[in-house]
Amino acid sequence: MTIDLEALYIDLHRHPELSFQETRTAGIVTQHLTDLGIEFEEGIGKTGVAAVIRNPSTGSGTDRPVVWLRADMDALPVEERTGLEYASTARGVDASGTDVPVMHACGHDMHVTAMLGALERLVATKDEWAGTVVAVFQPAEEHGAGAQSMIADGVLDRFPKPDIVLGQHITPLPAGTIGVRPGTQMAASDGLTVTLFGRGGHGSRPHSTIDPVVMAAATVMRLQTIVSREIDPRDVAVVTVGSIHAGLKNNIIPAEATLELSLRYPDDAARERVLEKVERIVRAEAAASGAEVPPTIVTDHTLPPTINDPVATTRLTHAFNGAFGEGTVVDPGMFTGSEDVSWFAREAGVPLVYWFWGGIDPEKFAEAKASGTLESAIPTNHSPFFAPVLHPTIERGVDALVVAAREFLGAPEGEPAEAK
Amino acid sequence: MTIDLEALYIDLHRHPELSFQETRTAGIVTQHLTDLGIEFEEGIGKTGVAAVIRNPSTGSGTDRPVVWLRADMDALPVEERTGLEYASTARGVDASGTDVPVMHACGHDMHVTAMLGALERLVATKDEWAGTVVAVFQPAEEHGAGAQSMIADGVLDRFPKPDIVLGQHITPLPAGTIGVRPGTQMAASDGLTVTLFGRGGHGSRPHSTIDPVVMAAATVMRLQTIVSREIDPRDVAVVTVGSIHAGLKNNIIPAEATLELSLRYPDDAARERVLEKVERIVRAEAAASGAEVPPTIVTDHTLPPTINDPVATTRLTHAFNGAFGEGTVVDPGMFTGSEDVSWFAREAGVPLVYWFWGGIDPEKFAEAKASGTLESAIPTNHSPFFAPVLHPTIERGVDALVVAAREFLGAPEGEPAEAK
Amino acid sequence: MTIDLEALYIDLHRHPELSFQETRTAGIVTQHLTDLGIEFEEGIGKTGVAAVIRNPSTGSGTDRPVVWLRADMDALPVEERTGLEYASTARGVDASGTDVPVMHACGHDMHVTAMLGALERLVATKDEWAGTVVAVFQPAEEHGAGAQSMIADGVLDRFPKPDIVLGQHITPLPAGTIGVRPGTQMAASDGLTVTLFGRGGHGSRPHSTIDPVVMAAATVMRLQTIVSREIDPRDVAVVTVGSIHAGLKNNIIPAEATLELSLRYPDDAARERVLEKVERIVRAEAAASGAEVPPTIVTDHTLPPTINDPVATTRLTHAFNGAFGEGTVVDPGMFTGSEDVSWFAREAGVPLVYWFWGGIDPEKFAEAKASGTLESAIPTNHSPFFAPVLHPTIERGVDALVVAAREFLGAPEGEPAEAK
Amino acid sequence: MTIDLEALYIDLHRHPELSFQETRTAGIVTQHLTDLGIEFEEGIGKTGVAAVIRNPSTGSGTDRPVVWLRADMDALPVEERTGLEYASTARGVDASGTDVPVMHACGHDMHVTAMLGALERLVATKDEWAGTVVAVFQPAEEHGAGAQSMIADGVLDRFPKPDIVLGQHITPLPAGTIGVRPGTQMAASDGLTVTLFGRGGHGSRPHSTIDPVVMAAATVMRLQTIVSREIDPRDVAVVTVGSIHAGLKNNIIPAEATLELSLRYPDDAARERVLEKVERIVRAEAAASGAEVPPTIVTDHTLPPTINDPVATTRLTHAFNGAFGEGTVVDPGMFTGSEDVSWFAREAGVPLVYWFWGGIDPEKFAEAKASGTLESAIPTNHSPFFAPVLHPTIERGVDALVVAAREFLGAPEGEPAEAK
Question: Which residues form the Peptidase M20 dimerisation domain (chains A, B, C, D) (predicted)?
Answer without folding.
Answer: 191-287
